[in-house]
Amino acid sequence: MTEHHRVAIVTGGSRGIGRAVALRLARDGHTVHLVYREAADEAAEAVEEITAAGGRARAHRADVADEAAVDALVDDVAEQDGGIHVLVNNAAVIDDRLLLGTRTAGWERVLRTNLTGPFLTSRAVLPVMLDQGWGRIVNISSNSVRIPGPGQTAYAASKGGLEAFTRALAAEVGHKGVRVNTVAPGKVRTDMTTAVADLLGGDGAGTRWGVPEDISGIVGFLVGDEADYIQGQTITVDGGRLVMRDRAGRGRAS
Predict the structure, then answer these.
(1) Are the C-beta atoms of residues 37 and 113 closer than 8 Å to each other?
(2) Residues classed as catalytic
(3) Which domains, from first to last, does the chain contain?
């Protein structure tokens, strides 16, 4: 099997990191199925950009927290393309607020999208991947698991659970040809974070925020054949922020 005949599903694929991942996988020869919930125009633009460059892509509207919608999506993709080789679980929501101000509904919304969503999509694609004897699942986490900010209890908990989910699933399916790994970005400049990035700047001289392409590159590697010996790992992509913190706890690189 060559990468040029592989089929990929990218959730949250219309904007930011998801869009960059979709474009990268398309350039690598994958047929890409972008999943979006609300950003229909952005999804259409991403598909148009891929197809204009000679790639193959299709957009699907679905809520990854909706079990029926996920099952229908996977059935549609598998029927259309005859297989599913790559799943990138990128869709996520943020609802930052201090714990005392967090309502149960808000907590559950974050966990349902960020953790239950990847559970549903992974469960749906696994029968296809196991039948093929080959598959790649990449979950997008966050450095907020290790250095959360105030108000990130729900978000950090959901991403921490996602990393544990990665390890457990890797132990289940690794011997059957399916590789499951996590990428944990640091501060990445997207359309949702540009205002904050401009306000805060870097953490010191010569530092910068990441860009979506910093993340899509490692995802592109993990879903390829050269990453076959990488399993159940969380790979941090944060410009060194995690290891360059001073004793006062202030990050010095991003």
Answers:
(1) no
(2) 155
(3) 3-237 (3.40.50.720)
